[in-house]
Amino acid sequence: MLNKNLQKVLSDISGGNNKGEPITLVGATKFVPVDVINEAISLGLTDIGENKAQEFRDKFPIVSPCNYHFIGTIQTNKIKYLIGKASLIESVSSYAIIDEISRQSVSANVTSNVLLQVNIGNEENKHGFSLEEISVATAYASKMPNVKVLGLMAMLPDSDNEPYLISLCESLRAKYDELKPIYDFKHLSLGMSGDYLLTIKHGSNMIRVGSLIFGSRY
After folding, report:
1. How confident is the model over 2-59, as pLDDT tens digits?
2. What is the DSSP letter of 35?
3. Cα–Cα distance between 48 and 66 in angstroms, integer?
4. Distance CA 153, CA 171 (A)
5. Packing angle, helices 134-143 and 162-183, rounded to 10
6. Rounded to whole angstroms, how far apart are CA atoms 217 and 52?
7. What are the chain's domains?
8. Cα separation, 90 vs 74, whole angstroms
9. How far apart are CA 200 and CA 177, in angstroms?
10. What is each CA distance from 73 to 97, 117, 149, 208, in whole angstroms?
11. DSSP summary character for residue 75
12. Distance between CA atoms of residues 110 and 131, nearest Å
C-alpha cells in the first residue's frame, strides 16, 4: 500500500507545475515509524519533513540518507535540534526565529537553508509573515549571517471556496516571482494532502504530503 500511495502522488506531480518547474515531494512523517520512513525512501521518496523538533532529533540518526526538512512550528529553544542537520527549515515565521537560527548557525559554523512562512490567509491561528511584509522580512533574513533564504512556504486556509484559494496561490506566486531574481529563490512550498493538486496548477513547486502516502496517524 505504501508503494502504491507514493507512486500515485509521484505520478500526479510528474508533469511539473503550471510554470514548467519540477515539483519536490516532501513526505510529512509526523508520528511515522522510522522503518516505514526508510521503506518509503527505498521506494523513491527523496525528501521528508518532520513537524516536531524533538521527533526530528530522535529520528535523524536512524533515518536513511535523504533531504530532511523541518516543516512544523518552531520554538526558539528547540532550534538547536535542527542546526547542521536539517536540509531545509521551511517554517521560519518570525524575526526572533531568524535571529536564533543565525546565532546558532554561526556558532556551529554552518549555513542554514530556510523558507520564510507566509500567513497567506491572514488567519489568527497560524504563524507567519503577512504577504505585505514578506519582502521586508526576506531582506532582513538575507542579511543575517549563515542564513540562506531559498524561498517561501505557506498553508492554504481550510475552505471550499476554490476561486478564493486560487487567488491566494496566485498572489503568493506573484510575490515569489518578484523576489526570486533578487534572492535566487528555489522553492515555493505550498500544498498538502488535501489541496496539492490545486496548488501545483497555480505556482507551487514543493508540496508536503503525509496522510495520502502514509495513511492516518492519529
Report:
1. 999 999 999 999 999 999 999 999 999 999 999 999 999 999 999 999 999 999 999 9
2. H
3. 7
4. 13
5. 30
6. 14
7. 2-214 (3.20.20.10)
8. 10
9. 15
10. 10, 10, 17, 14
11. P
12. 29
Spatial contact of 41 and 64, defined as CB atoms under 8 Å apart? yes
pLDDT of amino acid 216 = 82
Rounded Cα gap, residues 197 and 132, in angstroms: 26
- Name the stretches of the chain with pLDDT < 50: 218
What residues does 25 pair with on adjacent strands?
Answer: 207
Q: Could you give the C-alpha distances from 139 to 17, 93, 122, in angstroms and in order?
A: 27, 14, 21
Q: Residue 141 carries which side chain, given as an amino acid letter?
A: A
Helix ranges (DSSP H) in 60-161: 95-108, 134-143
Contact of 166 with 202, CB cutoff 8 Å: yes
Backbone angles phi, psi at 154, to 5 degrees: -160, 165
